[in-house]
Design brief:
The structure is a single chain. This protein has helices at residues 25-50, 55-80, 157-172; strands at residues 7-10, 14-20, 82-88, 91-98, 101-108, 112-117, 140-144, 147-151. It has 174 residues and is of the alpha+beta class. The protein folds into 2 domains: 7-21 and 84-172; 26-78. The strands form 2 sheets. A 5-stranded antiparallel β-sheet has the order 1-2-3-4-5. A 3-stranded antiparallel β-sheet has the order 6-7-8, covered by helices on one side. Strand 3 (82-88) and strand 4 form a beta hairpin. Helix 1 packs antiparallel against helix 2. The longest helix is centred in the N-terminal third of the chain and has 26 residues, at 25-50.
């Protein structure tokens, strides 16, 4: 029975795990509607800017644009974000991206140590309330040298534990 969020492909040479971003549908729908209002505010301010620029409108447009860019990035992550962990041969790739653009870490398989499940409070006041934006610790953690990496921001506990066991099995064979 496979009713999890992860797409897992195992081969003799490795494993590929692909996870969708954590979804908060209220945030995604609200922020999408908010972007409609943002657009009208932006175009209205641009019209005022063309008719004679003032320092306040310039400052306001800069702040408004930065805010809109942040919300756009959060929306793209929310709708289309992907976490990937791939072990192939002697290398591993940890990636958090939207349409292939994002953070990618290439690692040596032989240096991956101590895969583990980490219970994370995902409630609104918990330690992982930023997971919906693509930030914060994931439920699957491992050590690489003196650094701890994590992924699995949107996984349920049972699925994260299952994936940890798969990774332990896959990395202990060599």
């Amino acid at each position: 029975m496979n009713n999890g969020k992860a797409k897992i492909k195992e081969s003799i040479n490795g494993i590929s795990i692909q996870l969708p971003s954590k979804k908060n549908w209220f945030f995604l729908l609200f922020a999408t509607a908010w972007m409609g209002g943002w657009f009208f505010g932006f175009t209205g301010a641009l019209g005022m800017f063309d008719s004679g620029s003032s320092g306040f409108i310039t400052f306001w447009l800069i702040g408004w644009t930065i805010g809109g860019c942040f919300i756009t990035v959060f929306l793209l992550w929310g709708y289309f974000g992907i976490e990937r962990f791939i072990i192939s041969g002697s290398t591993a790739l940890l990636e958090k991206s939207v349409f292939g653009i994002g953070i990618k870490s290439r690692l040596k398989k032989s240096e991956l140590k101590e895969f583990r499940f980490e219970k994370i409070n995902t409630g609104l006041m918990g330690g992982n309330r930023w997971a919906v934006y693509g930030f914060g610790p994931g439920k699957i953690q491992f050590d690489y040298g003196f650094k701890t990496y994590s992924f699995g921001l949107g996984l349920d506990d049972a699925e994260a534990k299952h994936i940890v066991q798969l990774l332990i099995d896959k990395t202990s064979r060599n």
